[in-house]
Every structure is written in structure tokens, then in C-alpha cells.
Design goal:
Layout: E1 3-8, H1 17-21, E2 29-34, H2 39-46, E3 51-54, E4 58-62, E5 68-74, H3 79-83, E6 87-95, H4 107-114, H5 120-127
Parallel strand pairs: 1-2
Antiparallel strand pairs: 2-6, 3-4, 4-5, 5-6
Length: about 130
């Protein structure tokens, strides 16, 4: 995975313009966390004319290169949503040929690269002796 950085900020509304305009490397990733609500919908409205597909946790948009798309994912697994006020997002340049069945549904892995201790509370339950 090629990464251009992780940003813990107040929000973004657009991926880097270079991703839309040029032949960005497939796999290039930008991750962020924010406490601001509405980022997903802001992204969606900003790129409404480029939407290829949308679900509750993903938006896929086309770029100027017909071979590449950009995928925005919300890190949602129930636990993170329940335990943390932060919302985790990942933007990734993907092949336009990539099928939805090929998406990585394990957000815990990429969230932990951003915030290694997010799941520590959950792990503490495993260490507790309930007897």
C-alpha cells in the first residue's frame, strides 16, 4: 500500500486534486479521523456528478482516467461507532475494474494503523477473569 499520509483533523471535502486529474498509482491511500459529522455526505455532494456506486459505508467515484476510481470508506464495525466519537475514513485509488466483492471489509486493520489503541477497551474484556 502506498500511503500519502494520515490526517487527524476537522474534515475534508475532496481528495487531493492530483487523484482526479492524473494517473495516480492504484493503491495510493489517504486516511483520516475526525469528530466532525457529515464528512461522508459532504464528499458525496461535492462529487455527485462522479458517483459510480454508493452504500452506507462506501462511495465510489470516477476520475478523469477511465482506468481508475476513488473509493471513500467509513471505518464502521459497530465497535468503533459505539465506543468512539472519532469517525475513521479511508480514501483509496482503485482500479475501475475492481468489483465490490473485492473490497476489504476488515476496517479494524486499517483503523489500527491510524489509531493503534482504539480497540484496547475491547481487548481488556478478553483479559478479564469473570470467574
Amino acid at each position: 500500500m502506498s500511503s500519502i499520509g494520515t490526517f487527524h483533523g476537522i474534515g475534508i471535502c475532496a481528495p487531493p486534486p492530483v487523484w482526479i486529474d492524473t494517473n495516480s498509482i492504484i493503491g495510493t491511500t489517504f486516511q483520516l479521523s475526525t469528530e466532525v459529522y457529515g464528512l461522508f455526505h459532504e464528499f458525496l455532494s461535492h462529487f455527485a456528478d462522479r458517483v459510480v456506486s454508493i452504500s452506507q459505508i462506501r462511495v465510489r467515484i470516477r476520475t478523469d482516467n477511465p482506468d481508475r476510481h476513488i473509493l471513500l470508506e467509513i471505518g464502521f464495525d459497530g465497535f468503533v461507532e459505539f465506543q468512539h466519537s472519532f469517525k475513521f475514513f479511508r480514501l483509496m485509488v482503485i482500479s475501475a475494474e475492481m468489483k465490490e466483492s473485492e473490497y476489504d471489509d476488515n476496517c479494524e486493520e486499517w483503523i489500527c494503523r491510524m489509531a493503534p489503541h482504539v480497540y484496547d477497551v475491547y481487548d481488556d474484556y478478553d483479559d478479564y477473569d469473570y470467574n
